[in-house]
Every structure is written in structure tokens, then in C-alpha cells.
């Protein structure tokens, strides 16, 4: 260990990495198990698909056997003799045919136990097994079976329904056939009823206890009613036909928060699809043991890796942890923190250089703090000086002409307002004022502008919460905003301008100033240019896209807010051509002692 401690930090890392690599090679066996598990999973899914395909084949063979039995029935001599009388419209031997066909009916039912009954409808009468009780309450022509064969005009299978031809109302699945004869025969139909319960057992037979097998017709409906809630919900969802686009395949879908596998195969005899729904977890349950075995191997390897690598990490990170402690103290503004280490490796050298850097930072911070203090104070005063009233010339000119026109009292009022405006603006040399004094300042300004531009605009000032008037704020914030409205917003107006100033709370620790006008407004490009102008240094030219001087006072105001509040203040501009402009300033509440720039 002493020899290791004298190594360079690079060599220490190399040794640690070599150890981890050796462990990684040993864990390759775990990856082999993982590949085996994936292969087993694929084989399990393929086995499920093969099972559905075999089930579909069994049902197909059963239906094909039923078709062959009925073909044999239709080429039998008693049936042939009966058809010959039907063609000749001869009904005198009806009872003889009934007796002869009864034996053929019995042979067909013996050949296939699933057959419940056979019914033959002809123009000369009905034929059916003598052991069956015909339901005389309904004629074949009035049944849904007759309507469907007349509509389709072809041999067809009909899904599960209640038998209407014979007494008892047993549920059956029907095969409707038209006879094969030397000459065309009309009005002759053969109905073979198959027991639905037996057919259901045939469909479900090879699916297993954890799978639900059923048949879907071409319309996406079950061939016979299915009792399982899972199947009913999947069918009612209506997505099964969309998922079963291929002739044979497998799809996965989510239902009630669980993943299920949908396996299906088309039948050849009927236009039906053999469908099986099975939980994916049930299909893959044989993989649980393999997966737990793989997980156990992985956990064991992980524990060994953690033990070995942990010992190396603790040794290697000890000097780094010392550096982190020093850096955390520096993060907490403790610039007296210093790194101490007896090691002469690369980390020890880094610690020594960190100590030197901290000493230089302390010196630089003192210098930068002094420089920034002077710079910030100079910038604020420069911006405040730029915010002095630009309308002095117009105001004095207006007073002159009013005096010349002998309007003594209005002239005196304007002089008093101008004096009060300067008094409030100067604020005894302090940069911080109260909202009440700021509102009085902007009111005097608006009165003077009303005298200079008679009839051009009206204004309102609303303070929703009177206690806000005691809030502290930088001086001359509102005057640049209303100045912008008058000089630029109302530039094309002769009269009808409106300016509203609204003061309201904007949360527990913030309050807002909203200045609205109904002037010309600005398009999106002008608003962007106005915001971009705020990022320029004091004294720069206005941003591209603005007329000379337009928005200059607003951009200065935005820079003042950044200097006073940083990210705590928020200024939003909402404007559109011919819709006017709304400027909203959200400021944090500051205590009465907040006077750092006074």
C-alpha cells in the first residue's frame, strides 16, 4: 500500500480501471444468460402464435367436416328424389320423402355429434328429423336466417343465436346452404344448426386456462356471446379489427393498465378469425426463474464490484473530498478556507494552486467591489440626469405666449407646476422616493403637458390599495412612460387621447405599475427593438428600427430598473398598431430603510 501511495494520481487511476475491467470480464457470463433469456422469450411468444394457428386449423377441419357431411347429405338418393319432385312441383309424395330423409338426418347427426338439427325448406313442404319438435309459431320465411340468405345469395355461416325453428330455444350456430342439383332450384334452403356450447368448447379447447379464445366475424363482433369480462371489454373497445391487418400474426395492447397479447389466424371455411387474448405476464411466466437467476448473478457481481471499487474510490477520493470541503466553504463566501495535504501527487499540487488562487481572488474582489460601486453610482446618476424633463423648452414657450395673451392665472399655475415638478424630481438629491411623491411628480408633468397640448388627452390615476403609496421606488420612473405616450403615441392625434395609471398589488411581496394609452401603438418589430435598446450602454444610439429618440427614455428606464433591482424587477410591453400601448412594471416591496443609492 505504501508503494501504491507513492504512485502518481494517473497510475492510481490506471490500477483502479484495470480492476474494474477484470470484474467486467467476469460479468460477461451474466450477459450470456441475458441473451438466453431473450431467446427463450421469443420462443415462448412463437409457441403462443403456433398454438393459435393450430387451434384455427382444428376449427377449420371441424367446419370442413360439417361441409362434407352436408355435401354427402345433398347427393344422397332420398334428397335427390325430393329435389326432383320440387322441380316438378309434385307434393303428393311429401310424407314418403319425409320418412326417407329422416334416416339421412340421423346418419348426419351420428357422423357429427355437434349437429343439433337439420332443417330443409322447400316449396312442397318442410323436412326435418322426426325426433325434433318444429316451432310452428314462426315460418322459415319470417326468420333472420331467411332474410340473410336472401340478401347474400350464397352459402353462409351465421353466428350464435337462439334457435327459432325448433322448440326449446337452444343457442346454435347455423350453416345455410343452397342445394346442388342438375337444374337450378329456387326456394330450397338447408339449415344446419350446430350446438353453440359444443362449438365454444372446440374453440377454447387448446388455448389453455390462462388464455381466452373466441371467434370474430368480418364486422369485428364475436361469433357467439363471450362471458369473460376481458374479452367483452377488448371487443367493445373496437380496436381489434384495426390491429388484425395481416392474415396471421400477433399484437400487444394495453387494457386496464396491463399488457395483453392478441394472437389471431384466419379461418379458410368461414369468414371468421380465430382470436386469443392472453396476458403477456402469463406467456412469459416460465422465464421468471431464469430472470431471477440472472438477477441474482448480476446482484452478486455488483456487490463484489462495489466492495472492490469502493475501497479504491475511498482511497483515491480522500484528497478530492478535502478539496470539495474547501470549495463548499468558498461557495458559502468563506474565502479564508485553505487546502492542506501531505501528498505530493497531482491532487496536492492542485490544492496548493487553489490556495494561491483564493488569495488572488480576495484581492481582486476588493478591487472589483470598489470599482463596481463607483461605476454603478455613476451609471445611476447618468441615467437619472438623462431622465430630466425634455419638455422644458415647450413649457417655457407656452408660458411665454400665455403671458403675451394676458392669460396670467394659467401662466402662474404652469410656473407653480413646473417648480413643483423640479422639486419632486430633484428629491433633495436622493435617488429613492415614495410612490406618493412619484405620483405627484407625474401628475404635475401631465398638468403641464395638458396646458401645452390643450384638448389632446385626458388622464386618470388609480391606486387600488392606498397603503402602496408608502412603498419606496427610484425617482422619475413614471414620467418617461407618459412622456412616450404623449410624444409618440398621440403624435397623429388632434384630440381624444387617454392615459391611465394604475397601481395595484401583484402578489404577497410585489406590486405593479400599469401605464396604458390609446395611441398609435407599436408593431412587434418596434417592441423588440425597444427591448433590445435596454441592453445598450448609456449614451448609445437608439436601437435599429426605432425613430430617433423614440423609446429612448423607456430603454433608459429599463436599464435603471436593472441597476436598482437586477432580476427582481419585471417590465412588460404589450402594444399593437392602432391599439395603443400598455407597459407593466412589477417591483418588489422594499423596506423603508432601502436607500442604498441615496
Automatic annotation (TrEMBL):
InterPro entries documented for this protein? Bact_2-comp_sensor_kinase (IPR050640), HAMP_dom (IPR003660), HATPase_C_sf (IPR036890), HATPase_dom (IPR003594), Sig_transdc_His_kin_internal (IPR010559)
- What is this protein identified as? Sensor histidine kinase
Does the UniProt entry include the keyword tRNA processing?
no
Instruction: Show the CDD domains listed in the entry.
Output: HAMP (cd06225)
Where is it mainly found? membrane
Q: Which residues form a coiled coil?
A: none
Q: Where is it localised?
A: Cell membrane
Start and end residues of each HAMP domain: 314-366
One matching Pfam family: HATPase_c
The record's annotation in Gene3D superfamilies points to: 1.10.287.130, Histidine kinase-like ATPase, C-terminal domain, PAS domain
Mind listing the UniProt keywords for this protein, alphabetically?
ATP-binding, Cell membrane, Kinase, Membrane, Nucleotide-binding, Phosphoprotein, Transferase, Transmembrane, Transmembrane helix, Two-component regulatory system
Record-annotated membrane-spanning stretches: 292-317
Amino acid at each position: 500500500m505504501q508503494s501504491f501511495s507513492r504512485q502518481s494520481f494517473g497510475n492510481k487511476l490506471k490500477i483502479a480501471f484495470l480492476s474494474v475491467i477484470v470484474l467486467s470480464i467476469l460479468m460477461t457470463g451474466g450477459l450470456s444468460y441475458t441473451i438466453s433469456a431473450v431467446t427463450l422469450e421469443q420462443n415462448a411468444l412463437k409457441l403462443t402464435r403456433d398454438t393459435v394457428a393450430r387451434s384455427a386449423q382444428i376449427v377449420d377441419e371441424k367446419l370442413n367436416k360439417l361441409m362434407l357431411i352436408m355435401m354427402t347429405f345433398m347427393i344422397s338418393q332420398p334428397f335427390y328424389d325430393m329435389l326432383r319432385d320440387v322441380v316438378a312441383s309434385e307434393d303428393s309424395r311429401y310424407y314418403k320423402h319425409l320418412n326417407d330423409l329422416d334416416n339421412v338426418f340421423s346418419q348426419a347427426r351420428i357422423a357429427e355429434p355437434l349437429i343439433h338439427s337439420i332443417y330443409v325448406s322447400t316449396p312442397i313442404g318442410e323436412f326435418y328429423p322426426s325426433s325434433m319438435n318444429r316451432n310452428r309459431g314462426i315460418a322459415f320465411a319470417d326468420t333472420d336466417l331467411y332474410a340473410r340468405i336472401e340478401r347474400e345469395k350464397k352459402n353462409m355461416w351465421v353466428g350464435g343465436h337462439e334457435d327459432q325453428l325448433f322448440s326449446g330455444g337452444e343457442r346454435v350456430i347455423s350453416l345455410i346452404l343452397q342445394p346442388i342439383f342438375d337444374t337450378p332450384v329456387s326456394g330450397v334452403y338447408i339449415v344446419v344448426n350446430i350446438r353453440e356450447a359444443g362449438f365454444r368448447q372446440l374453440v377454447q379447447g387448446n388455448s389453455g386456462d390462462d388464455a381466452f379464445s373466441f371467434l370474430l366475424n368480418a364486422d369485428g363482433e364475436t361469433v357467439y356471446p363471450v362471458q369473460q369480462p376481458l374479452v367483452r371489454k377488448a371487443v367493445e373497445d373496437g380496436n381489434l379489427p384495426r390491429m388484425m391487418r395481416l392474415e396471421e400474426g400477433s399484437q400487444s395492447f394495453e387494457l386496464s393498465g396491463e399488457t395483453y397479447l392478441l394472437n389471431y389466424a384466419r379461418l379458410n371455411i368461414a369468414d371468421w378469425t380465430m382470436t386469443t387474448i392472453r396476458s403477456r405476464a402469463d406467456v412469459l411466466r416460465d422465464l421468471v426463474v431464469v430472470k431471477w437467476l440472472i438477477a441474482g448473478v448480476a446482484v452478486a457481481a455488483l456487490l463484489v464490484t462495489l466492495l472492490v471499487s469502493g475501497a479504491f474510490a475511498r482511497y483515491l477520493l480522500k484528497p478530492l473530498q478535502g478539496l470539495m470541503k474547501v470549495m463548499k466553504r468558498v461557495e458559502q463566501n468563506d474565502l479564508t478556507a485553505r487546502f492542506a495535504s501531505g501528498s505530493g501527487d497531482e491532487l496536492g499540487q492542485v490544492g496548493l494552486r487553489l490556495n494561491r488562487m483564493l488569495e488572488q481572488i480576495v484581492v481582486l474582489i476588493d478591487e472589483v467591489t470598489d470599482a463596481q460601486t463607483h461605476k454603478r453610482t455613476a451609471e445611476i446618476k447618468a441615467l437619472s440626469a438623462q431622465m430630466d424633463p425634455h419638455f422644458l423648452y415647450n413649457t417655457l414657450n407656452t408660458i411665454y405666449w400665455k403671458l403675451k395673451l394676458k392669460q396670467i392665472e394659467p401662466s402662474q399655475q404652469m410656473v407653480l407646476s413646473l417648480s413643483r415638478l423640479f422639486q419632486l424630481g430633484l428629491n433633495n438629491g436622493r435617488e429613492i422616493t415614495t410612490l406618493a411623491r412619484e405620483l405627484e411628480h407625474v401628475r404635475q408633468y401631465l398638468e403641464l403637458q395638458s396646458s401645452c397640448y390643450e384638448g389632446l388627452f385626458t388622464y386618470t390615476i388609480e391606486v387600488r390599495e392606498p397603503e402602496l403609496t408608502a412603498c419606496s421606488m427610484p425617482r422619475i420612473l413614471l414620467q418617461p412612460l407618459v412622456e412616450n405616450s404623449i410624444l409618440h403615441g398621440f403624435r397623429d392625434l388632434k384630440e381624444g387621447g387617454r392615459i391611465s395609471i394604475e397601481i395595484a398589488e401583484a402578489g404577497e411581496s410585489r406590486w405593479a405599475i400599469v401605464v396604458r394609452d390609446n395611441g398609435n401603438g407599436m408593431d412587434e418589430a418596434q417592441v423588440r427593438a425597444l427591448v433590445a435598446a435596454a441592453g445598450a450602454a448609456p449614451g448609445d444610439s437608439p436601437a435599429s428600427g426605432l425613430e430617433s429618440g423614440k423609446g429612448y427614455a423607456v430603454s433608459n428606464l429599463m436599464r435603471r430598473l436593472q441597476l436598482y433591482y437586477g432580476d427582481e424587477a419585471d417590465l412588460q410591453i404589450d402594444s399593437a398598431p392602432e391599439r395603443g400601448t400598455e407597459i407593466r412594471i412589477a417591483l418588489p416591496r422594499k423596506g423603508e430603510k432601502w436607500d442604498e443609492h441615496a
